[in-house]
Each structure stands twice: as C-alpha cells, then as structure tokens.
Design a protein that fits this description.
8-stranded mixed sheet, 504 residues, alpha/beta, globular, Alkaline Phosphatase, subunit A
Length: 504
C-alpha cells in the first residue's frame, strides 16, 4: 500500500458512552456514525493518563508518562523525546497540527513541520501540583463545580472561537495540500469541545429537550480516589442539584454534537478536494468525562467514563466492523509508523501497531495507564485493562478489580472476592514487576519542585512566554501587487479551471 494521508481529529474530554456512534440513544453524532459505518470502531480504547497534557504527550511519544516525565498539565514534554510526527516527517510526510495539543515547554512543535494555530491553554509551569502539600489547590485552577452549575447556551465562548479557527485553518490547509499536490500528509485537528465549561451554541443546545436527558446511572462513589476527586472539584461542598445535572448533561451532549459537526466539516474538505479515498481518518479523544456518574465530573480517574475514549478509523486498508481488543492512545505512534513503512526508533515504544486490528483482526493486547497528577494521593495510580478485567492499583489505596463483561458499570470491586483471588493476585504481582511506585513518586516530587522554581523565576521581571505564535505573512496572501491577479486566481481555485480545447 502506498503511503496514505492521515487525518486524526481529536476531541477533548469526549466519553464514547455519550455518542450516538457508540450507541447512545439521545446524542446526535451523524458524522461519527458515518465514519463508524464505513470503518472500524474500537470498543475498548483507553487513554494512558486521564488528564489533557499527559494523555497527549503519551499519544505523541508512544510512551507512558513515567518514561518521558510528562506527569501533569504543567510538566514539560521534552524536545529530545521522539514523536510519531518526527518519524513520519523523516518518512516523507508533511506533518501539520491545527488546534490544541497542550505542549508544555519551549518546544511547541514536537515534530510537526507546521502548526496553524496557537494553543488554547498555557505552555508554562503555572499549573504544577504539589504532592508534598496535597491539600493545596493549584493557583488559577478552574476545576470546580462552576462549569456544572453555570451550564447553558451562549452565542460564543473562548472555546467556540478556538474550535471555529482550528477547523477553518485545517480545512484551508487541506485544500492547499490538494492544490499543491502535497502528499502524503499527516494532520491532527485537535478541538477543545466537549470539554467544560458546558456552554454550547444555541443551535446545538436546541437539538435536545430537558425531558429526554438521561441522568447518571451510578450513585455516589465511596472508594478513596473518588472521594479525593470529589473534594478536588469541590463537589463535596457544592454538589449539583438535579436540574443542574440535567442542564450540564444537555450542554455536554450539545457540545458533542458541535464537535461532530466539525468532524463533518473536515471530512467534507477531504472529499471536496479529492483526497478522502487516500486518507485514513481517525476520531478519538484525550480522555472522557464522568459527567455526574458517582457524583463525579470531568476526568482524573481510571473509571470507564473518564479513561475510555472513542476511537474510530476509516480509510484505505480499514475494514468495516468493531474491535473488542483493549487498545490505547499509546498504540497510535506504532500504528502511524507502520502505515508510513516503518522507521528506526530513537526510543522503545510502549504500544503496538493496530494495523492488524484495522484489517479486522483481534488480539490479546492490553491498555495500560499511569496517573501522576492532581487529585492523586501523592502516589502514582496504575491501570491495566486486559481481556474482560480492569485492575487499578495505588500504594495507599485499596486495589480495584472489575469484570467489565459482567459488570460494565464497575459496581462490584472483586479485588477481595474469593472467587477472583488468583486474578487479583496475578494483577498485583504484575503491577509490582512493571512499576517502581516509590521511584516514580520520588521523581514526580523532584520534577514538581524544579518546575515551581522555574515558574517563580519566569514570573519575576519581564515574562518570557512559551506560548506558540503562529507565523503569518499577509504580504503573500490573497492578491498582492507583486502577483499577477490571473495567476493568483488560477492557483487558488480548486478544482482548477479547464479551458476548452480550441480544436473542438
């Protein structure tokens, strides 16, 4: 197979459970539905760390966060870490990012040859947690219950403006790639929706009615991590009432439909430019959203609504069907490298290529996760999903073992169940062999200290920003006096005008 183009459309905080493509009876996602109908839907796909920046860093590097030090939303993603964008670029791909990737540090490209927009979130160390003072709230941290209690429609928000720009720039570049015959290319279109705040445009809010909104299925959680998370988002002192929960879920559904509409715009640009048939399109997210289940919101948990992500692929070499094998975002790097024809790796990858699964196969693979950020108990939390079981472990919390086939709602912890003692013991032994929790904790704390010192210095005196500044030369855009107007019109028209043959 010749090198196909790759377009990956990434949502932020989209749980597959709340999409029509994954069977939700209410949520309208016609464009994701259409992709799933002609491609492969992965039904057991997970993020590798249920928080924006670490999830995205592991997705780019194909490595777990403890190996690259990208622990939280303010941890630097090192420039010396090779990403799939580096590998594909070396294999002849034009690599392009439009939208969010939450890169922290002075390197805001990480292998992308071009970046079309700035990021939506800061690139510095301001959001660094402090595991030595776990009760201390991160300065400027927005995760509280305001997003739930203030849910409702608005004409515009900073998130809407961002996603409009992200999509427009991506569509324009897709057309330019067709005009200039730029191939192959690998583009990430990364949107912020349906991430909180839960504020959709009115036309998407009006797609839903209050009386049809389903409410959380599982009541209040009681495990230690969930209780910490409840305190961390202030749901313990500011819980949402029934009307607020319903409005927040309606707004989230509306924002999911908005994201789906943007998926449709990108796919349409590929179709209109004649590139769809040679492009593998992937839709996924960096993590999910608990959305009121167990009295919890947002992410930062390895429970299904937080850790599972949609993953839908369609295009050349991808058969129609569903895959039940556990996979994760860390598998994307190996998959893209395989699509490009292989590469000499600069660092071992933690994932495996999904090409055999895209072709209709199944395997005994796994999804593995690490959480080393805010609301953790100042210790790393680990997750292994293999077969029908999910195991969650932390040095200071009781282990959790769920049989997701028999108990998809994760209602029954089997870690101390006599009938599952062998399974629990095997997972516990594997966790001890895979990870040195104390060593990771020590590194996380040292890493946090360094970042707080750097940030304190950078805030003093003249501020030096790492935030990405998209290059733009307006003198070369549209029609200028150094150009011939006719040439400009011809070179920007697609499909190009075909003059009649005078001999006919």
């Amino acid at each position: 197979m010749t090198q196909p183009n790759i377009v990956l459309i990434m949502a932020d905080q989209l749980a597959p459970q709340f999409t029509g493509a994954y069977g939700h009876a209410i949520v309208k996602t016609p464009n994701m539905d259409a992709l799933a109908k002609r491609g492969m839907r992965f039904d057991a796909a997970y993020c590798n760390s249920p928080l924006c920046a670490p999830s995205r860093a592991s997705f780019m590097a194909g490595q777990q966060v403890s190996k690259i030090g990208a622990y939280d939303n303010a941890a630097e993603f090192g420039a010396s870490v090779p990403t799939w964008a580096h590998y594909l670029r070396a294999k002849g791909y034009m690599t392009c990012l439009s939208g969010k990737m939450h890169f922290v540090g002075p390197d805001q490209l990480h292998g992308f040859e071009e970046r079309l927009t700035t990021d939506i979130y800061p690139s510095d160390h301001a959001w660094t947690p402090d595991w030595e003072n776990p009760g201390q709230r991160i300065d400027k941290w927005y995760h509280n219950m305001d997003s739930v209690k203030e849910a409702g429609p608005a004409a515009t928000t900073f998130q809407i403006e961002y996603d409009e720009e992200t999509t427009f720039m991506a569509r324009r570049r897709i057309m330019e790639y067709a005009m200039k015959k730029t191939s192959p290319f690998a583009m990430v279109v990364s949107l912020i929706h349906p991430h909180d705040p839960y504020v959709p445009r009115p036309e998407f809010w009006n797609l839903y009615n209050d009386d049809e909104i389903d409410m959380p299925v599982v009541g209040n959680a009681s495990d230690p991590h969930s209780e910490r998370l409840k305190v961390g988002i202030e749901a313990d002192v500011d819980a949402a009432n029934e009307d607020e929960v319903r409005a927040a879920r309606l707004a989230y559904y509306a924002n999911t439909s908005y994201f789906d509409a943007k998926v449709g715009e990108v796919v349409k640009a590929l179709e209109e430019s004649g590139q769809l048939d040679n492009t593998i399109v992937i839709v996924t997210s960096d993590h999910g959203d608990l959305l009121g289940e167990r009295g919890l919101w947002y992410k930062m948990s390895f429970l299904e609504h937080s850790a599972r992500v949609p993953m839908i692929m369609a295009g050349p070499g991808v058969v129609q069907g569903t895959c039940n094998s556990p996979v994760s975002l860390v598998d994307i790097a190996a998959t893209f490298i395989d699509i490009a024809g292989g590469a000499e790796l600069g660092a071992p990858l933690d994932g495996r290529s999904l090409l055999p699964l895209m072709a209709g196969g199944e395997d005994d693979g796994e999804a593995v996760g690490e959480y080393c950020a805010e609301c953790a108990p100042s210790w790393p939390i680990f997750m292994i999903r293999r077969g029908q079981f999910k195991y969650i472990a932390c040095e200071v919390d009781p282990p959790q073992l769920f049989d997701l086939k028999a108990d998809p709602g994760e209602l029954v912890n089997l870690a101390d169940d006599a009938d599952h003692a062998d399974v629990a013991r095997a997972f516990a032994e594997e966790v001890a062999q895979r990870w040195d929790a104390q060593a990771i904790r020590t590194d996380v704390i040292a890493n946090q200290k360094r970042r707080r010192a750097v940030h304190a210095g950078m805030e003093a005196g003249a501020m030096t920003s790492w935030d990405y500044q998209p290059p733009r030369d307006a003198s070369q855009e549209f029609v200028r006096n150094h150009q011939d107007w006719t040439v400009a019109a011809e070179t920007t028209r697609f499909p190009p005008y075909k003059r009649p043959d005078p001999r006919r």
